[in-house]
C-alpha cells in the first residue's frame, strides 16, 4: 500500500490566495448585484505591452514554419534571453553575472518553492514575518519546519525575523543561526525596502556564518529610490552566498504568460566545495523542459527599447495607483506604509480589528477585497495589504468607497 508524504498533512488550511478566492466567490454568489473590486492578490490588470504582443505574434508564426520551428528549449533557457538579462539587469548596473549563471523558468513562484530541494532536509530556514507564504509552505512540504503551533501560527524549526513598524519592517539578524535565509525586497507583503548598506550587512552575515540568502527580487522594477539595490549582486561578496529570483509577472505583466529566472553564481559552493549551480542545473534538466520559446521570445521583447519604455509606463501606472491608495488612506487617518518602492500598501487595521475582521468589513461595506496581514504570518496580524495592480478607475472607485464607509 502506498504511503503519502505526510508533510503535506501538516499544512494548515489552504493556500492564502485560494482561501481568499473562495470567500470572495461565496460573497459574489450571495450578492450578485454588488461590483466587487479586487485589490487582493498581486495580479496585474493591464494588457501585455504592444512590443511584447508583436513579438508573441511573430514567434507563433515562426512555430508554423519548418525552418524556424522550435522544439524543446535549451536547459537553461535561450541564449538570446539570458544575454539580454545579463546585459541590462546586471552589467548595466556594474554587476558581474554571466549568461550561464541564469536559469530561465516559468516563474519566480515555482522557483522560490523548488529551490529548497537542493538543500539538506535538516537545514534551518529563516524567514521574515510577515512573509510570502510559499517560502514556508514549500519547506513544510519538504519536512524542514518541525511542528506547527496553531495558537501562535509558528513552526518550531523555523527561525522568524519579525518585521514590524518598530524596526521599519526590516528584518534583524536572528539569535539562532540559519542555513537558508529568505529575503524579499522590495518586500511582499509590507512594501518595505532596505537600502544597499543594510543588504550588504546581510551578505556579510551570510558569508560569515556560511548561510545562503535566497533573495526574491520579483518587485525590483518598482524601486523609485536611488540608494536601494535592484539586485543583491550589487553587494560585495554576494556571489558566494546569494541566489536571486526574478519575475516577468511583475515587471512586464506575465502573470498569465509565465516567465521568470533564477541566478546562481558559480562561486556559490557548499563547505565541501559543491557548486549549487551544478545541482540546480541537474535539477532543472531532470524536472523542467524549459519555458516555451514563444514566451521566452516575448520576454526578450521586454529588453528592447520599445519594450522597456512600454513596461516602464505600466509600472508608473501601477505606482500612480499606489500613491492614490496611500495618500487617501493616510488622509482618512490610517497608518500606512509601503507603496514607494513596491506595488503594495500595508496598513494598520482600524479599531483593533483583526486582519480577517477587516477583510470582512471591507468586503461587506466597500465591496473591496484586500489581503489580511495575518495570512502572511503572526506579525502581520492587525495589518492589511492592498495592491496597486488594479486598474486606475477601479483604484479610484475603491478608494472612494473606503472613504464613504
Ligand atoms: C501576491 O499577491 O502576493 C502575489 O501575487 C503572489 C505571487 O506572485 O505569487
Written description of the protein model:
This protein is of the alpha/beta class. It contains 13 helices and 15 strands. The protein has helices at residues 7-10, 16-30, 50-63, 79-90, 108-114, 133-141, 196-209, 248-252, 276-287, 293-301, 305-331, 355-366, 392-403; strands at residues 37-38, 102-105, 125-129, 148-149, 154-155, 159-162, 180-184, 212-216, 242-247, 260-263, 336-338, 344-348, 368-369, 371-372, 383-387. The strands form 4 sheets. The chain has a 7-stranded mixed β-sheet, sandwiched between helices. Strands 11-12-15-14 form a 4-stranded antiparallel β-sheet. Strand 4 and strand 5 (154-155) form a beta hairpin. It is globular. D-malate binds next to loops.
Q: What secondary-structure arrangement, pairings included, does this model have?
A:
Elements: H1 7-10, H2 16-30, E1 37-38, H3 50-63, H4 79-90, E2 102-105, H5 108-114, E3 125-129, H6 133-141, E4 148-149, E5 154-155, E6 159-162, E7 180-184, H7 196-209, E8 212-216, E9 242-247, H8 248-252, E10 260-263, H9 276-287, H10 293-301, H11 305-331, E11 336-338, E12 344-348, H12 355-366, E13 368-369, E14 371-372, E15 383-387, H13 392-403
Helix pairs in contact: 3-10, 4-10, 5-6, 11-13
The structure holds D-malate.
Residues 41-43, 109, 132, 188 line the site of D-malate.
Question: Can I get a quick summary?
Answer:
The chain is globular. The longest helix has 27 residues. The strands form four sheets. It has a seven-stranded mixed sheet, sandwiched between helices. Strands 11-12-15-14 form a four-stranded antiparallel sheet.
Amino acid at each position: 500500500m502506498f504511503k503519502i508524504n505526510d508533510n503535506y498533512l501538516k499544512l494548515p488550511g489552504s493556500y492564502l490566495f485560494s482561501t481568499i478566492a473562495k470567500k470572495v466567490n461565496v460573497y459574489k454568489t450571495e450578492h450578485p448585484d454588488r461590483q466587487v473590486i479586487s485589490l487582493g492578490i498581486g495580479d496585474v490588470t493591464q494588457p501585455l505591452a504592444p512590443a511584447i504582443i508583436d513579438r508573441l505574434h511573430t514567434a507563433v508564426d515562426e512555430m508554423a514554419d519548418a525552418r524556424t520551428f522550435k522544439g524543446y528549449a535549451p536547459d537553461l533557457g535561450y541564449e538570446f534571453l539570458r544575454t539580454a538579462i545579463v546585459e541590462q539587469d546586471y552589467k548595466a548596473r556594474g554587476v558581474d553575472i554571466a549568461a550561464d549563471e541564469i536559469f530561465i523558468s516559468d516563474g519566480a513562484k515555482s522557483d522560490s518553492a523548488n529551490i529548497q530541494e537542493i538543500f539538506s532536509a535538516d537545514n534551518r530556514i529563516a524567514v521574515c514575518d510577515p512573509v510570502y507564504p510559499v517560502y514556508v509552505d514549500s519547506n513544510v512540504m519538504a519536512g524542514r519546519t518541525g511542528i506547527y503551533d496553531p495558537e501562535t501560527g509558528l513552526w518550531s524549526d523555523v527561525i522568524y525575523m519579525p518585521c514590524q513598524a518598530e524596526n521599519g519592517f526590516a528584518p534583524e539578524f536572528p539569535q539562532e543561526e540559519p542555513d537558508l535565509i529568505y529575503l524579499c525586497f522590495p518586500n511582499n507583503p509590507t512594501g518595505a525596502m532596505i537600502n544597499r548598506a543594510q543588504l550588504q550587512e546581510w551578505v556579510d552575515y551570510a558569508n560569515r556564518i556560511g548561510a545562503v540568502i535566497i533573495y526574491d527580487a520579483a518587485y525590483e522594477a518598482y524601486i523609485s529610490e536611488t540608494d536601494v539595490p535592484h539586485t543583491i549582486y550589487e553587494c560585495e561578496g554576494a556571489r558566494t552566498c546569494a541566489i536571486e529570483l526574478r519575475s516577468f509577472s511583475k515587471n512586464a505583466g506575465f502573470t498569465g504568460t509565465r516567465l521568470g529566472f533564477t541566478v546562481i553564481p558559480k562561486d556559490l559552493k557548499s563547505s565541501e566545495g559543491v557548486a549549487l549551480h551544478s545541482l540546480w542545473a541537474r535539477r532543472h534538466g531532470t524536472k523542467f523542459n524549459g519555458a516555451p520559446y514563444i514566451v521566452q521570445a516575448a520576454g526578450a521583447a521586454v529588453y528592447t527599447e520599445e519594450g522597456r519604455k512600454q513596461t516602464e509606463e505600466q509600472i508608473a501606472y501601477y505606482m500612480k495607483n499606489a500613491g492614490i491608495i496611500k495618500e487617501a488612506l493616510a488622509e482618512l487617518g490610517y497608518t500606512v506604509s509601503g507603496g514607494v518602492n513596491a506595488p503594495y500598501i500595508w496598513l494598520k487595521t482600524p479599531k483593533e480589528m483583526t486582519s480577517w475582521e477587516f477583510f470582512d468589513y471591507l468586503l461587506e461595506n466597500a465591496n473591496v477585497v484586500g489581503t489580511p496581514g495575518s495570512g502572511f504570518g503572526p506579525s502581520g496580524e492587525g495589518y492589511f495589504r492592498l495592491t496597486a495592480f488594479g486598474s486606475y478607475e477601479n483604484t479610484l472607485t475603491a478608494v472612494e468607497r473606503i472613504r464613504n464607509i
